[in-house]
Amino acid sequence: MPALESPFAHLHLIRQPEQQNEPLQAFDAADEYLLNHVAELALPVNSRVLVLNDSFGALAVSLASTMQVTSSTDSFLAVKALEKNLVRNGQAYDAVSIIAASQPPVGPFDCVLVRVPKTLALLEEQLIRLQGQLAPGAQVIAGAMIKHLPRAAGDLLERYVGPVQASLAVKKARLLTATPQNLGPFTSPYPSRYSLDKPAIELLNHANVFCREGLDIGTRAFMPHLPSNLGSARVADLGCGNGVLAIASALNNPHAQYTLVDESFMAVQSARENWQAALGNREVAIDAGDGLAGQAPDSLDVVLCNPPFHQQQVVGDFLAWRMFQQAREALVVGGALYIVGNRHLGYHSKLAKLFRGVEQVAATPKFVILKARK
């Protein structure tokens, strides 16, 4: 894979999760553009730099040897990538201060570098949290590939930070530089909430939660077909989002034991708060993680999953396939994985390669609900 060259470092970076013959690199032209721009700013050594949404550590690792870098991300996989890439490039794994996007950063920061996220609500929340955290003369510089840079990103920067200057395009990337003004105070519109009839619960959703304004149609199709009569089964909600599948299942299975995991810190934060609201102090494990990678083999009876079909802006079934493999490892013999998926994704044939029996539980014109038994 090509190295990332910048005025700060020559880096060899990997993506997370790793896969053999990785077709994609761990940085892009927007990372290069941001780093070249920071070099032109000639910040003093040890300046405090906040990096937001650094997918695999390209920005933070590049700057770590000369700046005091804080990296904030909503991705557990991004944290793992940053730590691994620091070590791969001769630095301590903790050379960068890392905070989950579910926690506010604490400044003052001399410079803020932003990779524009796919979910603009996350960007809005992050910009609101910059209030009072910027040093005098600080700049907020956002970068993205032009095809992933909506006009609304510039509008948010202007609303919450200050006047915005757009750069010329370089290698199909563009920067937006905002000059901070005292525009606040602002109150965050997040978390948002919506209610369900069956089960009768209210769900809270932090800014980066998938479908935070209402139940997504895949989950809506899945809900009536969740397994029942589970007794004291050990159940995992893999890619739990706001926790709705596990909560609905737990309400119908009072003796089952639940584990919820998601790679989004904001999803996990939402799931914890929703579980508490719906089920009080009922015992549960809810954690950010790399799917079921840390789950002991043969330790689960049931896995529920509404798998993602993208990682940031990259669309594909790699993450879903990996989740299916993790589920198979974690399930006991005779245990079952229940999933919902778009018909056209062909999950039935993929699951048949891993599990001894795959059956269609239900279907809608768009979705299928499948049960795969180990």
From TrEMBL:
Reactions accelerated catalytically: guanosine(1835) in 23S rRNA + S-adenosyl-L-methionine = N(2)-methylguanosine(1835) in 23S rRNA + S-adenosyl-L-homocysteine + H(+)
Enzyme Commission number, as recorded: 2.1.1.174
Main location, first listed in the record: cytoplasm
SUPFAM superfamilies registered for this protein in UniProt: S-adenosyl-L-methionine-dependent methyltransferases
Domain of life: Bacteria
A GO molecular-function descriptor: 23S rRNA (guanine(1835)-N(2))-methyltransferase activity
Entry keywords, A to Z: Cytoplasm, Methyltransferase, rRNA processing, S-adenosyl-L-methionine, Transferase
Location(s) in or outside the cell: Cytoplasm
Domain RlmG N-terminal stretches: 1-181
General function of this protein: Specifically methylates the guanine in position 1835 (m2G1835) of 23S rRNA.
Database matches in PANTHER family: RIBOSOMAL RNA LARGE SUBUNIT METHYLTRANSFERASE G, RIBOSOMAL RNA SMALL SUBUNIT METHYLTRANSFERASE C
Stated family: Belongs to the methyltransferase superfamily. RlmG family.
UniProt name for this protein: Ribosomal RNA large subunit methyltransferase G
UniProt organism field: Pseudomonas endophytica
Gene: rlmG
